[in-house]
Amino acid sequence: MAPRAGSAPTLHRRKAVRAFSFLALAGFAILAVTAGEEKHDKPRLKLIAEPAVGFTPVTTVLTGQLSGVRPDDAAFCHPAVTWVRVNPGLTEDDATRYREDAACRHPPSEAVAVTSFTKTLTLQQPGSYLFKLVVEGRDGQHVESAYTRVQVLRVQ
Description:
With 156 residues, the chain is an alpha+beta fold. Helix content is 21%, strand content 38%.
């Protein structure tokens, strides 16, 4: 004799299937989050400009934030920093580069990773400027930001 719809054995099977489905989905979600966390262990560099738009002359503050490094990472204790500036109408090949050499003199046991970088520039000519930041650790590892744009407008 077949169980009636809604009878106890059918209801238990449905609950078991739902519970198994929920656990399987939860497992996949945990795997996805874990995989995402592994990606965050890689150093990343974000660069912002404030203000990003203004009338000539524009004094902009570039701020780079390094993430994905341990606070005691000796490779990023006073790392070398290169600011890349592409003026309006030029290409990256013609960019101006400002390099600040590594300056860490600490023993590795006293190392503190530097994670914030700032540069202030005054832009006189109208146009679209591009900026990028490159940080080089003592171990030779390079971390580059994406380009950020500063638009300088002409006063009419």
